[in-house]
Design goal:
Layout: H1 2-25, E1 27-34, E2 43-45, E3 48-51, H2 53-61, E4 67-74, H3 76-85, E5 91-95, E6 115-117, E7 119-124, E8 141-145, H4 154-158, E9 163-167, H5 170-179, E10 184-189, H6 190-199, E11 207-211, E12 219-225, H7 231-246, H8 249-256
Parallel strand pairs: 1-4, 1-5, 8-9, 8-10
Antiparallel strand pairs: 2-3, 5-12, 6-12, 7-10, 7-11
Length: 258
């Protein structure tokens, strides 16, 4: 019995050493998650329970024994500040070449896109409204998410011909639409709108979607990397991303959140 106990202890020591050796050689990637505002691309609850379109793609890319994902959940402005200052190294998140004003999310991007997004104008109890030209919105109020980017919309905001109300979350945006229902519209990615309307149990038959591509054309989202991520890692990510496209794995992930 004594020999058996010694043998068990020996196996346990070996197992610990193997685990330590694995941890020493496993490559770590810092995955940056935007707190609260990025659903359904990044979903989390108090920095835990990570899911969402981009998150599932990243998890699939790095699945296996050679990588460890370290999650960093940050408010949008703090995230930009930390990434621009270089306080976090070897990171990955998502971005777009259209987001030119945010360098860290528009410069070092994956070779292959994640998803194509389009924007909608959401109204509440305005079934008769038709958007045919930007002038239809003059004097109206656009509800926009604080910290988000709206390519193509800036000139109209700067001209002050369209009023803007900035909100921090979707619940606030939906409340504004109900309060100013004949004069307010919420501009957002269609995918995000549909997800968050359902998430907040909003009455879908009371809302109207209006195509907004005459102002914000469709564009693609990509993975975004830190400039210090080595070429071999970037090549690996691109290869895995292509394989996920070829097998329709990304389509399946996106469909789950539509």
């Amino acid at each position: 019995m004594f020999r058996f106990i010694l043998l068990i202890k020996c196996f346990l020591r070996v197992g610990v050493l193997v685990l330590l050796a694995f941890n020493a050689h496993a490559m770590e990637i810092n995955y940056i998650v935007i707190a609260d505002q990025a659903r359904p691309f990044q979903i989390e609850s108090n920095g835990k329970g990570h899911s969402g379109i981009v998150t599932e793609i990243v998890q699939s890319i790095f699945a296996g024994q050679d990588w460890q994902i370290k999650y960093h959940t940050l408010p949008f402005k703090r995230m930009i500040s930390m990434l621009e200052s270089g306080r976090i190294k070897h990171w990955i998140t998502y971005g777009s070449p259209e987001w030119k004003s945010v360098r860290v999310q528009s410069e070092h991007l994956s070779k292959y896109p994640l998803v194509t997004v389009n924007h909608s104008l959401l109204s509440y109890q305005q079934p008769g409204f038709k958007l045919t030209k930007i002038e239809d919105l003059y004097g109206k109020t656009l509800v926009l998410m604080l910290g988000f980017l709206y390519p193509g919309l800036d000139p109209y905001i700067e001209s002050k011909k369209i009023n803007v109300m900035w909100v921090k979350g979707y619940e606030s945006a939906f409340r504004v639409l109900k309060r100013l229902k004949h004069d307010a519209f919420f501009v957002e990615m269609s995918l995000r709108l549909k997800y968050n309307l359902k998430k907040n149990n909003e009455p879908l038959d009371q809302y109207q979607f209006h195509d907004f591509d005459l102002v914000v054309p469709d564009y693609q989202l990509y993975l975004a990397f830190s400039s210090d991520l080595d070429p071999a890692s970037v090549s690996f990510i691109n290869q895995r991303l292509k394989a996920m496209h070829d097998t329709k794995a990304i389509d399946a992930i996106v469909a789950h959140y539509e």
